């Protein structure tokens, strides 16, 4: 059962009837900070009342320090209070499950509702932006149409007066719908039209001196010629921006940007000499018409200048007063009704395009009605869908309430079963294995209680198995220690030779074996063997082999004779599934030769010493020989296949004997390390000290395995002929004598 004693949740404060908040204020650091903040606030009030306005700077400093002290103290109190609530309220699993149901069921549902609401708002806002963009682009296309109409009428004029009358008539007609519309005829130079655009009777120059203007051109100065970037005979139609604050005294530049749709139309002739430029300003009348059609009001216009796009260089005059955008009152209205859309504009002088951010005032209900509701049958069907959506929402809330009720009931059942399990574990902790948990229901919780009762009956047997396993592990550790003592201990001191060895079993006890022992004056033997299999059986055969070899080395100096004698003894003592591979080397320091024979073992790698700065290639010695212990015949086959080779010694020559655990290390892709890699590494680093070379070889093998487990014993024996071989020096092998 939980400890019900009051626990300290704040420094110096324990929640109990004997402790009060005053002790926390006096004893804890956050409480003292809060108290100091309150005192500083009182000092600030008193100083403000006594000194009046303006307040001295030190009073503001005291006020700031007091505010910080109160914030820090209350923040610490809130954090500790939340920790206390978490410990006290969430100790019971039932409360945790109920909160889990709330956060898993109710909260995601609310998030889904919020998601769809936000998605709807985003959809309506994006639709509104699209509507504004299309309406403004439509104004540019309307300007193109009007410019083409003016172009056709001017081509029919036969005199200067007729041209001017045509321009004024067209301007007056279009101004009825588009106030402040302006037209200009400007000269054109350097434009050549492709043959596909040519038309009959289109190349006649108007009988009037250019440029000619119609309209006030009050927003910006009228153009006098086409810019150099406009070289297409198809003309153009684009939105342009100008700074209307340029004509207002005292107004800051860029504070009143206005839009104008400018279109250019050229006659379809080979080399046009004149063009029509028509400006359709986006005036307050046009904006009000846009608001009536879409329910969207244009607000402030700003420019987004970058390194590649222009700002607004044109200066002009405001044609009329734009109504202030109505964003409503309050922060919520500001968030819901304000939006921004990007509109592309073109600079008349350079032809570069840029982005304008146009603020919008949205009436969401208005936009929704225009999108969702039509008239007649469509409006009735939309109403039915909206009512169905409300019904679904109400059903959703009812289902959530029922799910919460079911969750509380399920939590009671689960916590009851957990309490029974808790009681059972308390009995197990007290080593009472006779306690039985009552099975209250035939469901998974009941099966869990039944499984617990079965488990208590198995615990005694499990404890016995654990004790047995610990005893076996201890015995294996002792066997490993004894086996490692069978190998040569300490540094191998052999005059005229540098010797290094490495042996690591794959399990607690291995079957690899190596040994070094004197044969006679000036000669000594090196033996390496690998018993098939791993574990205790291989280790026992390895110990038997050591005793046998030590007894036969003084009787047989020849490696071939020794291996034959070993095979004769072991052929009847190994079981039919076991065998031994061996390599035996006798080094004669006086004759400076090595005699080598192997019985099915890995070949010997020879790295000759450096001669005159040149490294000879690696050699692999692999004389024939059959493994030891096979009961194929009376030994005749073994003797006939066994071959002995003699190798001359030279200073710096390196000889490497190893077991297949080194060459057959496998990586995760099941590729073997191989004898070739061993030879390459030994040849590349043949001049290193043997201890370092052995460490390098082992590291390369393990790196190739890339974390794969060692599947076989790894043993290695390295020999190197010293630069000066003293024939008469006695051979001392202290490590092998033991």
Number of beta-strand segments: 21
**DSSP summary: helix tally:** 17
Radius of gyration: 50 Å
Across the major sheet, the strand order is 11-12-21-20-17-18
Low-pLDDT windows of residues = 1-18, 725-738
Estimate what percentage of residues fall within beta strands: 15-25%
Alpha-beta classification: alpha+beta
The helicity comes to: 40-55%
Main pleated-sheet profile: 6 strands, antiparallel
Quickly count the domains: 3
Description:
- α11 (536-552) crosses α12.
- The model is unreliable at 1-18 and 725-738 (pLDDT under 50).
- Strands 11-12-21-20-17-18 form a six-stranded antiparallel sheet. Strands 4-3-7-6-5 form a five-stranded antiparallel sheet.
- The protein has three domains: 8-91; 119-372, no CATH class; 487-605 and 620-659 and 687-695 and 710-737, 4-Layer Sandwich (Phosphatase 2c, domain 1).
- It is of the alpha+beta class and 738 residues long.
- The chain is 45% helix and 18% strand.
- It has helices at residues 21-27, 29-51, 57-89, 93-156, 160-175, 284-294, 331-337, 364-372, 377-429, 444-486, 536-552, 559-570, 636-641, 660-663, 675-684, 690-705, 734-737, and strands spanning 8-10, 13-14, 182-187, 212-214, 236-243, 257-265, 274-281, 296-304, 338-346, 353-362, 493-494, 497-504, 512-520, 523-531, 580-588, 593-599, 604-607, 619-621, 644-648, 654-658, 714-721.
- β13 (512-520) and β14 (523-531) form a beta hairpin.
């Amino acid at each position: 059962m939980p400890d019900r004693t009051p626990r300290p949740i704040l420094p110096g404060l324990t929640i109990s009837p004997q402790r009060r908040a005053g002790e926390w204020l006096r004893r804890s650091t956050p409480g003292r900070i809060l108290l100091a903040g309150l005192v500083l606030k009182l000092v600030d009030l008193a100083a403000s009342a006594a000194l009046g306005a303006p307040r001295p700077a030190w009073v503001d400093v005291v006020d700031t320090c007091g505010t910080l002290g109160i914030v820090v103290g209350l923040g610490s109190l809130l954090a500790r209070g939340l920790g206390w609530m978490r410990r006290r309220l969430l100790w019971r699993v039932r409360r945790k499950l109920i909160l889990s149901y709330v956060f898993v069921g109710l909260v995601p549902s609310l998030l889904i509702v919020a998601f769809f609401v936000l998605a709807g708002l985003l959809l309506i806002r994006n639709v509104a932006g699209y509507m504004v963009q299309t309406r403004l682009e439509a104004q540019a296309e309307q300007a193109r149409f009007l410019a083409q109409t003016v172009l056709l009428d001017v081509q029919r004029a036969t005199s200067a007066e007729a041209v001017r009358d045509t321009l004024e008539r067209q301007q007056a007609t279009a101004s009825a719908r588009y106030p402040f519309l302006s037209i200009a005829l400007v000269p054109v130079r350097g434009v050549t039209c492709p043959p596909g655009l040519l038309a009959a009777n289109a190349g006649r120059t108007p009988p009037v001196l250019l440029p000619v203007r119609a309209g006030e051109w009050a927003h910006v100065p009228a153009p006098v010629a086409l810019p150099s970037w406009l070289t297409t005979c198809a003309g153009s139609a684009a939105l342009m921006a100008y700074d209307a604050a340029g004509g207002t005294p005292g107004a800051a530049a860029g504070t009143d940007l206005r839009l104008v749709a400018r279109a250019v139309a050229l006659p379809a002739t080979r080399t046009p000499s004149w063009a029509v430029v028509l400006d359709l300003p986006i005036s307050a009348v046009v904006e009000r018409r846009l608001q009536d059609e879409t329910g969207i009001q244009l607000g402030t216009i700003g420019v987004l200048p970058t390194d590649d796009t222009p700002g607004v260089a044109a200066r002009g005059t405001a044609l009329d007063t734009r109504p202030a955008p109505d964003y409503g009152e309050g922060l919520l209205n500001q968030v819901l009704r304000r939006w921004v859309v990007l509109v592309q504009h073109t600079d008349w002088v350079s032809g570069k395009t840029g982005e304008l951010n146009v603020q919008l005032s949205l009436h969401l209900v208005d936009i929704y009605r225009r999108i969702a509701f039509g008239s007649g049958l469509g409006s009735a069907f939309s109403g039915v869908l909206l009512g169905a959506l409300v019904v679904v929402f109400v059903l959703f809330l009812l289902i959530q309430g029922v799910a919460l009720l079911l969750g509380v009931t399920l939590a009671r059942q689960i916590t009851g079963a957990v309490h029974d399990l808790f009681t059972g574990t308390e009995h197990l902790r007290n080593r009472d294995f006779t306690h039985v948990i009552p099975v209250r229901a035939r469901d998974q919780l009941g099966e869990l209680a039944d499984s617990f009762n079965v488990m208590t009956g198995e615990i005694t047997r499990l404890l016995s198995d654990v004790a047995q396993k610990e005893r076996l592990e201890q015995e294996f550790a002792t066997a490993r220690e004894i086996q490692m003592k069978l190998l040569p201990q300490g540094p191998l001191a052999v005059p005229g030779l540098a010797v290094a060895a490495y042996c690591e079993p794959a399990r607690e006890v291995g079957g690899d074996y190596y040994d070094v022992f004197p044969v006679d004056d000036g000669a000594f033997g090196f033996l390496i063997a690998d018993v098939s299999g791993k574990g205790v059986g291989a280790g026992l055969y390895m110990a038997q082999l050591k005793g046998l070899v030590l007894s036969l080395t003084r009787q047989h100096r020849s490696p071939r004779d020794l291996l034959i004698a070993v095979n004769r003894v072991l052929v009847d003592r190994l079981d039919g599934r076991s065998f031994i591979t061996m390599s035996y080397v006798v080094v004669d320091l006086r004759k400076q030769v090595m005699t080598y024979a192997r019985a099915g073992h890995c070949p010997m790698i020879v790295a000759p010493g450096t001669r005159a700065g040149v490294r000879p290639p690696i050699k692999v010695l692999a004389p024939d020989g059959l493994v030891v212990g096979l009961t194929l015949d009376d030994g005749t086959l073994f003797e006939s296949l066994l071959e002995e080779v003699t190798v001359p010694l030279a200073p710096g020559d390196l000889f490497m004997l190893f077991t297949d655990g080194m060459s057959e290390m496998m990586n995760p892709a099941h590729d073997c390390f191989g004898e070739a890699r061993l030879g390459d590494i030994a040849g590349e680093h043949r001049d290193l000290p043997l201890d370092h070379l052995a460490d390098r070889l082992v590291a390369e093998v393990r790196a190739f395995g890339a974390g794969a487990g060692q599947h076989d014993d790894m043993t290695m024996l390295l020999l190197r002929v010293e630069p000066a071989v003293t024939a008469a020096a006695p051979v001392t092998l202290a490590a092998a004598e033991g």
